[in-house]
Amino acid sequence: MQVSRRLLSSLVIVTALANVPAVTEAQAPRRPVSVGLGLGATLPISDFASDTKTGWHGTGFLQYEPERNVWGVRGEVGYHRSGYTDEFLGAVGAEPDDDLSNSILHAGATALLLGNKRDKGLTPYLLGGLGYYRLTVSVAQGTAVQSESANGFGFSGGAGVRLGRNTGAYLEARFHSFSITPEGGEKSTYQMIPVTFGIRF
Fold it and tell me: In this predicted structure, which of 44-48, 68-72, 168-172, 195-199 has the lowest mean pLDDT?
């Protein structure tokens, strides 16, 4: 009987200690500024998908949310990288040892609409914005690397969900569309869907 009481007391203490961070987070005032870091997969779509494989990306943002409002704004940067399909490599006459890839640097401003401002646990949100995109195509032949870059503007929109008030994980998917006109070339439009998992603090 005494052993059972000790065991019960230990369980009560452990449970109480485990709930302290959650209670503290729930009662803590909302910080208006947060930082986010994320990683994920970049899925090319439309004409971009016929030449490009699924790649990866990393992203970071600085976000501001006024208290007692359901909106926020974000300044963000992202880096996407992917390889080309075998069909594309064959069409351009690439050698088997050639390493062709493309990278996209994105910087922009985004607005958010929060679905649940009280976010005791789970908060859905919508987001959309405008950005600057720099596409770089690189060819590596042994130790020699050649690259060409072109710039353009575009837009993005999507949805996400996050945990916690001030800190926690988030998951979001967005549609990006941007157009680039290389010097002496024709205008091309690129579209992709990055799916990102990250942390906010």
Answer: 68-72
12 contact partners, CB below 8 Å, separation of at least 6: none
Spell out the domain ranges in the chain. Answer: 30-200
* CA separation for the pair 4, 147 (Å, rounded): 71
Q: Which fold has domain 30-200?
A: Porin (2.40.160)
Determine the residue type at 183: E
CA distances for 140 relative to 6, 83, 102, 137, angstroms: 67, 12, 11, 10
Distances (CA, A) of 194 to 60, 147, 150, 157: 13, 24, 21, 11
Burial 184-194 (b: 16+ CB within 10 A, else e): eeeeeebbbbb
Classify residue 97 as exposed, middle or buried by CB count within 10 Å of its CB (0-12, 13-18, 19+): exposed
| Residues 41 and 55 sit within 8 Å (Cβ to Cβ) | yes
**Cα–Cα dist 175/110, whole Å:** 13
13-34: pLDDT as tens digits: 444 444 444 444 445 677 899 9
Distance of alpha carbon 39 from alpha carbon 25, whole angstroms? 25
For the four alpha carbons of 34, 37, 43 and 49, in that order, the dihedral sign comes to: positive
| Predicted confidence (pLDDT) per residue in 145-193, tens digit | 789 999 999 999 999 999 988 899 999 999 999 999 887 778 999 999 9
In 3-state terms, what secondary structure has residue 17? helix
